[in-house]
Amino acid sequence: MKHSKIALLVSAALFASFGANAASTDNTATVNQAGNTNLATVTQTDESVDNIATIDQVGNGNAAHATQARTSDTTATISQTGNDNLGTVDQMDATETSTASIDTIGNENKAYITQQLNNADSASAAIIQVGDENTATIVQDNADGAVSTITQNSSGDTATINNHWSDNATATISQNTGSDNHGTIYQESSDSATASLTQTGGANTGTINQETGNFSHDLGTDDTLATLSQDGQGNDATINQNAMHNMASVEQNGDGNFATVTQNGESNASTVMQTGTGHSADITQNDLSNLANVTQTGSGNGLTLTQEGSDFGTGNTASVSQNGDNDTASLSQNGNSNQVVIAQNTSSHDNNISVTQSGTLNYAGAATELGGGSSITITQAGTNNSVKNNANANNYYGADIGAGTYGANNTLVISQSGSDNTAYADASHDNSSVDIAQSGEFNDATVESWFGSDNDLYVSQTGDHHLADVYVVGGSMNAVSVTQTDSYNTANVTSSGSNNLVTVTQGTM
């Protein structure tokens, strides 16, 4: 092979240097350059044993730098094809058994790998860039066993991986086919952390931050895992893991979607899958053992979820499925073992569901179908309160759904405080409202506006062991008001037709 003058001079200098240094044995440096104005620099110094550095450049104006100092069994390989590419590998100090490789095809690509200080044993870093004007950075500092891989196969992509003080950490960024993607993974003090980010499409932004504050450096001490995958255009996703034993997965298929998962406690799990356009999901998990599963299809749906106040093994659970357009859900869970199920189906649009639960073992299930402009608001404080199927109700919306709207511009409001209260509310067709307020213990309310419009139903129960069953079917402009205090009152109301008025008052006022 034809060698440039620069390559020959570098090889000769390296040979002379290694021969004069007795501590530096069995080192090999090979530089091959074809083209014009290329620059290659290889430095292997001090107690570097069995090191190999290879640089191959084809094209013009390329520059490659490999530095290995005070290391043993270290390998650095740079291969560049095209023009004006820059590759730098820096392995220094006590970096044993490290392997770094940069492979670039195209023009004006940049790649940086740094492995330094006490990064011993099995650290490895690899960068492959195909296309033009890509930038990739890998930093592994004192990260024993860390493996970082960046692959970019198009143009204008930017990727950064940072493994610092991260034993057994693995970080992978893959950005393919599309262009102008930005991927970032930070792993700080995160033993056993694993992060993978894949973006296919263009102009996507993905960020994974793992900061556990763990300094024990023992395998399996935090087991943190994060996976992020985006396919489409202009998606933005962020995963923040600030404690141990968390798992987070975000997948977005479509355009203009946004997702953020923040885990500040331990043993939390969150899965977000968004398909379509313009969705947003913001999930925050504090404290312990919370679980969130979110699926959004259609377009323009939005979710805000906060889970906190839980103990280990008794975390809160949220399951959200929004399949229509421009539906929103806001959920807050504070306490132990609270559960929420939200379902807004494909024919639902511009509806809102809000659930707030504090206490223990509360359950809320809510759904919207057909039409838009409806809202469901559920507030529960205490223990064992539930909004779900009821033996006295139609239970139209599916298993364990206790608050539902079918049609447009309906309003459901449920408020429960105390313990062991149950509620079921339904407003089908248009412009109806159902309001249930219960405080005390063992109260049960079933309130339905079934196949009617412009109905107004209200139930208030204060005390213990009250029962209210209100069923309005057909017609319009009906009004029902039930108020019960003290204990053990029962109200059964059935109304059919239009323009009916019912008022029930029982107990001490």
TrEMBL record:
Signal sequence coordinates: 1-22
Family matches, as InterPro entries: Curlin_rpt
Gene Ontology terms describing biological process: cell adhesion
A cellular-component GO term for this protein: pilus
Region Disordered, annotated ranges: 299-334
Keyword Repressor (UniProt): no
Keywords: Signal
Record-linked Pfam families: Curlin_rpt (PF07012)
Family named by the database record: Belongs to the CsgA/CsgB family.
Protein name: Curlin associated repeat protein
Organism annotation: Shewanella violacea (strain JCM 10179 / CIP 106290 / LMG 19151 / DSS12)
